[in-house]
Amino acid sequence: MDATDLFLAGLQLYFITMNWTVERSYCAAPITEGSDCFLCPETHEFCTAHNPLFLARPEWLRLATCFSAYAFCVGYLVILWAALTDGWAKLRAPILLFIGAKMYALIYYHTMEFTSETPPLGLGAYFGVEGPYLLAGVLVIRKVMAGSLNPLKARRSVVKYSSKRVPKAATQRALEAAIMAPNHFLSEPWRFYTCGPETKAKLCGLNEDKRKAAEAVPEWLIVTLASEHKLTEKLGLEDHAACACAIQNFMLSLAGEGIGSKWMTGALGAAPEDVMAAVGAPAGEKL
Q1: Model pTM?
Q2: How far apart are CA 21 and CA 37, in angstroms?
Q3: Comparing C-alpha atoms, which of 118, 169, 109 is closest to residue 137?
Q4: Using CA atoms, how far apart are residues 198 and 144, in angstroms rounded to an integer?
Q5: CA 232: distance to chain centroid?
């Protein structure tokens, strides 16, 4: 779960709250200055100043609000669940169906608002209230599409990164994919070392000429080969190939979640034994 997930989860809770309070009250009866439902007095005050059509309660708007209050709540719950469980890929179909319906409703609603005899007053305040629905729609579509990437086509060697940290859950899923790589005789010769700030600092300090470039990489993973066989032997080569497959699986898993990566062998310009020492790899393993 990242910051966008948390933001979307918060928005869904806000939308659900509006469903169960203002929208259902509006569906049942006009909202007046004396309405005592949760957030109704604030809604009346806002609409008096900025959205008189809402208070006029034309039949089309009442029916649309009733539908939103009782049907769209389910869609918000689905998105909330996806945000909390990182289930964007699994829930792709129902989310896209809901977002399509919601965006259509928003376009229709705003078109009717602005072409009516009493269009909204004060666009800043109006879209301050309506904007979160539009923003949520865009963010949800981005999340769903990122979770639905074809990793075989999405994976590229990335050289420029943002400072955003990779979610631990994404790294865990990538590691789970990595260890499913084929390995002859189930030797499982791979070893993975995730690097925290202290280890990353050690790695970046191994070559002062490349320190700046190394420090620009936000996350590091060192992969070693633990094999009983020499690389000149058939089984040693098979273990080496298994590690390569594991690394590819790892990168494909990240690519499927919209996370860039790069496989480097000698780009750091440091001796293999120094890299191994930095991550605490035991004797016998090979970089």
Answers
A1: 0.54
A2: 7
A3: 109
A4: 35
A5: 44
Determine the Cα–Cα distance for residues 104 and 97; give it in Å rounded to an integer.
Answer: 11
Distance CA 130, CA 26 (A): 17
The C-alpha atoms of residue 136 and residue 18 are separated, in whole angstroms, by 15
Residue 217 near residue 165 (C-beta atoms within 8 A)? no
How crowded is the C-beta side of 276, counted as CA atoms within 13 Å?
14
The dihedral formed by the CA atoms of 212, 215, 220 and 224, expressed in degrees to the nearest 10? 40
Which amino acid belongs to residue 34?
G
For 224, counting Cβ atoms within 10 Å of its Cβ (0-12 exposed, 13-18 middle, 19+ buried), the class is buried
Measured in whole angstroms, how far is the alpha carbon of residue 136 from the centre of its chain? 13
d(CA 228, CA 148): 40
Q: Which residues pair with 222 in a beta bridge?
A: 193
Contacts of 259 (CB under 8 A, 6+ apart): 166, 170
Please list the residues that pair with 195 across neighbouring strands. 220
287 residues of the chain, pLDDT tens digit each: 788 899 999 999 999 998 898 888 888 888 888 888 888 888 888 888 888 888 888 888 888 888 888 888 999 999 999 999 888 878 888 999 999 998 888 888 888 888 888 888 888 888 888 888 888 988 998 888 876 666 776 778 888 888 888 888 999 999 999 999 999 888 999 999 999 999 999 999 999 988 988 888 889 999 999 999 998 999 999 999 999 999 999 999 998 888 889 998 877 888 889 999 999 999 888 98
* C-alpha to C-alpha distance for 103 and 72, rounded to whole angstroms: 12
β partners of residue 220: 195
Alpha-carbon distance values, 53 to 20, 69, 113, 198, 277 (Å):
21, 18, 7, 60, 70
Distance CA 255, CA 150 (A): 8
